[in-house]
Amino acid sequence: MEIPYTTKPRPDTGLYNAKVGIWLFLASEVMLFGALFSSYILLRVGAFVENWPHGLLNVPIGTVNTIVLIVSSITVVMAWASLKMKNFGKFKFYQAITVLCALMFLGIKSFEYRDKFTHYEVWKTDGTRMTGHIEGKPMFLTLAKVKAAGKEKIGFIPDPYHYSASKEVKHTAKEHPGEHKTVEIAVSEIKRLSAFVPAHSTYFAIYFTLTALHGLHVLGGAIVIGFLFGPGSKMWHSDPERFTNRVEVAGLFWHFVDLVWIFLFPVLYLL
Amino acid sequence: MQATTHNVAHGGADEAHHHEPGFMQKYVFSTDHKMIGIQYGLTALVFLLFGFCLMLCMRWQIAHPGQPIPLVGHLLERVLGDVAKDGKMSPDLYNSFGAMHGTIMVFLAIVPLAFGAFGNYVVPLQIGAPDMAFPRVNMASYQFYVLGGIIMFVSFFIPGGAAQAGWTSYSPLATSIPTHGQAFWLIGMVFLISSSLLGAVNFIATIIQLRAPGMTWMRLPFFVWAQFVTGFLLLLAFPPLEAAGVMQLMDNLFGTSFFLPTGLAVGGRLADISGGGSPLLWQHLFWFLGHPEVYVLILPGMGIVCEIIANNTRKTIWGYKSLVYSVLAIGFLSFIVWAHHMYLTGMGTKISAFFQTTTMIISIPSVILLTCFFISLWGGSIRFNTPMLFALAFLPMFGIGGLTGLPLGLAAADLHLHDTYYVIAHFHYVVAPGTIFAMFAGVYYWYPKMTGRMMSEFWGKVHFVGSFIFMNIVFQPMFFQGMAGMIRRMADGGANYSAAHNPGAIGGLSASMMGLHSVILWGAVGLAVSQIPFILNVFISMKNGKPANDNPWDATTLEWQTPTPPPHGNFAHAPTVYRGPYEYSQPGAKKDFTPQNQA
Ligand code: HEM
Ligand SMILES: [Cu+2]
């Protein structure tokens, strides 16, 4: 028994099965990320400005990551085109770049995550708030943990300004950067302490959810493309047409993953 | 043409160089759509029975609050511990059972039965395909479903028990309950959703790509159309719930506040959270799935009923094209009616007005479907066999369910009816005597194709009469209780709000309304007893049923033009289709049915 149209396109639809499958799958992915983007909008519209952190992400790094993904998007097409031109060596070359780009993206992203996990906000009982770093660069510290450790004070290196500060304040702070001084904060004066983790605010909640889900997609894509680059590429010698189709389908998925990032980057980093 | 399919029946020439697959490969890790369909069917029927048993316990508690549950009370205490102390149902246990009853019935019983089982078994056969487009994805879909089911089942036995926040899992309630049941629920749901997605992709791709030569869109049996639209609903409506599920999981495990508002207090204390989230967001995302989901529950049933009516009236279906266009219209419209579940949330009257309008519009295609089926009966010489009896009963039952939905769709009337037993009665009429009857009809109808033997007609009719009477005894009274103001999801069945408990208070539930609880309880017991002939019939007929030939119902569609049971690869010769799906009693034809593959 043979299932028809696994390789050759069906004449009236012009598509082979896996291509229909991947487009349908991507439609569901659009709904998945669409729901999260809608949630982002709803949460943001409902949030007070001072509770919606802004400008805390590293834009240059985000830009680099965007470029990395765009490059991989090009190479994944080139890889497929090389197969179409029966040039297996070139395919290997381009696909290797794609996988490297994917890994680079993930590496940079984890670096960014780490940066956030060691960056804090303190809400003091007198109503003032500040962001900054804690001496010793601990990760995931919370008020409960500080108390459990029996500490009475923490050494805090504040940022020049809080994200909710007015434009002028931010401007002057940038013009006249003072030196970073450590201040001591008594634990009894702290109402809440949170790193920039999902629990910090709905902004970081949606930031981490969206980027982690996207990261998982990048990882999944990297595994599939890596497989087609490595052990899976044996198929080129037995069934070149089917192998080319596989590379195409993986490439479609990869484009989608890139496209999501193209939306994520401005929404999370810039707006 | 037809004759040729018969003589190559079993062990055709090309099967000789296939070796026989081992037991595991054949029954557990099968990639054959027919075996997967049967796996889905049996698993789903087990969950259907399990969900029903949960409800039996709850109906006892409602009718006799705080009294030990007969027969199973002490067993529950033994396996579940303190929540069932002395064999009594604690409110926590009631909430768990209620939440899990809904979840199991919708996601683990009806959808897998309607879509996974019947869709898998019948769709490739009806379109003349050798299998699904992606057989291994199909297997994965079933495995995800089983995994999701296991996670849900195991959650009963963890400390604190299963989820308690209803099948709708509204936040902040779902996040405030300090047990891990909800986390299990969410993780289980992620598996079930993934399973549905894989299934949906596979079904749609199969229907688009693997139709036999000559099987044009307008020659598809209506059942295939129904599954096609169902596939799209699952494909596009489930991902937002997946997103919502991930967010609620974050709320539960990582302390985020997606759905938790600022200033939320739990147990009288301010919750230690950032706040700023939106409980309404959960409801929007949930019902964005939830409403298309109810059409996922009903459309496959409609498809089954259509096949059986055409077959047993021996006439073509009246208005095939209007059926197709209506089901497509329902598919589109079901994505823009979701907030009719949320009139009372304070989302605003303008939004209510919009959703009230779309809700009224979507009832038009639903009515067209039902009308076509009714008109199809006109002038037929009807064969009243068991599948037909269930299919016929489906029509008025779905009618009652659908019509009682209209007052719910009007924001003004819903003020009174929302969250009462009236809503329970409404949707159970569509799903229980509606969809479940259609499922029974399907089992009786396709059983001979699956097993090569007929089910007993006599016991089938006993099953039908019992189910029909007791279904109505169970659900009819709920309309009256609901209109009298009885709220759903109360662990004491409303005793606290009864006139007897609050003498002199205005609007207390009267003794007669409270008394209906016993009627419902005994109706439910009767319903349980009525299922015994069915269960025995399924098993005994496998060995002892009357042998069935390849086409015992004299049907026209392609699944009956295969050997019985169909071999791996389905058709002895790839069929070609020459005509529409329901050519019964054609003038000039030799027999009163003309199969689709007859030139
Ligand atoms: C045909 C026209 C229909 C209309 C106008 C309609 C309308 C409604 C409305 C407005 C509600 C919300 C009531 C409330 O919570 O106050 C509701 C609830 C419900 N309906 Fe329908 N409905 C229709 C058909 C169906 C069908 C075909 C099904 C399923 C097969 C269904 C299943 C449900 C379920 C499960 C609920 C309750 C969900 C819950 O709150 O737990 N309905 N319906
Ligand atoms: Cu609805």
Supply the CATH architecture of the largest domain in chain A. Up-down Bundle
Reading side by side through the largest sheet of chain A, how are the strands ordered?
Answer: 4-3-2-1-5
Radius of gyration of chain A: 24 Å
Query: Largest sheet of chain A, if any?
Result: 5 strands, antiparallel
Descriptive account of the structure:
The complex is a heterodimer of chains A (271) and B (599). With 271 residues, chain A is an alpha+beta fold. Helices cover 61% and strands 10% of the residues of chain A. Chain A has two domains: 17-25 and 57-116 and 201-270, Up-down Bundle (Four Helix Bundle (Hemerythrin (Met), subunit A)); 121-195, no CATH class. Chain A is built from eight helices and five strands, in the order H-H-H-E-E-H-E-H-E-E-H-H-H. Chain A has a five-stranded antiparallel β-sheet. In chain A, a hairpin with a 4-residue loop joins strand 1 (119-124) and strand 2 (129-134). Chain B has 599 residues and is an all-alpha fold. Chain B has one domain (32-261, 273-561): Cytochrome C Oxidase, Chain A (Up-down Bundle). Chain B is built from 17 helices and two strands. Chain B has helices at 2-7, 23-28, 33-63, 73-80, 91-127, 135-154, 173-176, 181-209, 222-253, 279-313, 320-333, 349-377, 386-409, 411-417, 421-451, 457-483, 511-544; strands at residues 265-266, 269-270. In chain B, strand 1 (265-266) and strand 2 (269-270) form a beta hairpin. In chain B, helix 10 packs across helix 15 (421-451). Chain B starts with a helix and ends in a 55-residue tail after the last helix. At the A-B interface, helix 1 and helix 6 of A face helix 8, helix 9 and helix 10 of B. Copper (II) ion binds at residues 291, 294, 337, 340-341 of chain B. Residues 168, 294, 297-298, 340-341, 359, 363, 366, 402, 405-406, 408-409, 414, 417-418, 423, 426-427, 430-431, 435 of chain B line the site of protoporphyrin IX containing FE.
